[in-house]
Amino acid sequence: MNLKQALIDNNSIRLGLSAATWEEAVKLSVDPLIESGAVRPEYYDAIIKSTNEYGPYYILTPGMAMPHARPEAGVERDAFSLVTLQKPVTFSDGKEVSVLLALAATSSRIHTSVAIPQIIALFDLENAVKRLQAAKTPEEVLAMIDASKDSPYLEGLDLEG
């Protein structure tokens, strides 16, 4: 699964949105995946349930979260969405998030060895969260993903499939 291609195929980049709560922010990040048929609506419910149970385990770096749940919780196919918020939302652990990169993975292998390295590569770019939050067009986001393609985190990764 290729991050850039998944965002294009699912028309799932949404910039400058507003959310009052972390639940609303997660919903905004999952909506494009529901709309594209990548996940069923219950996927959102599974993310909320697991967040309430285990805390926001998917906050990967300051300002950025990767909401996701288990493949059997409604994933139809591998996909990503990327949402930026005008103002950050605060999760139960007090951390603020303004960029959400929702992941739908059909297997743990896709999640661990394909999705995570691409996300790390993107957020390893200098000021990645600020730059994503400042992006006004999907093209700016896609250009950042292109800029991350030489990351050592992606070495040996087949991103065509």
Automatic annotation (TrEMBL):
Q: Does the keyword Lipid biosynthesis apply?
A: no
Q: Which UniProt keywords apply?
A: Cytoplasm, Kinase, Phosphoprotein, Phosphotransferase system, Transferase, Transport
Kindly give the SUPFAM superfamilies that the UniProt entry links to this protein: Phoshotransferase/anion transport protein (SSF55804)
Could you tell me where this protein is found in the cell? Cytoplasm
| Secretion signal span | none
Task: Please name the InterPro entries in this protein's record.
Answer: Ascorbate-PTS_EIIA_comp (IPR051351), PTrfase/Anion_transptr (IPR016152), PTS_EIIA_type-2_dom (IPR002178)
Superkingdom field: Bacteria
Please tell me where this protein is predominantly located: cytoplasm
Report if keyword Transport is assigned: yes
Q: Please give a single GO biological process term from the UniProt record.
A: phosphoenolpyruvate-dependent sugar phosphotransferase system
One GO molecular function term? Answer: kinase activity
Regions crossing the membrane: none
Residue ranges constituting the PTS EIIA type-2 domain according to the UniProt record: 6-148
A Pfam family recorded for this sequence: PTS_EIIA_2
Sorted alphabetically, the Gene Ontology cellular component annotations on this record are:
cytoplasm
The name this protein carries in UniProt is Ascorbate-specific PTS system EIIA component
Natural source organism: Streptococcus macacae NCTC 11558
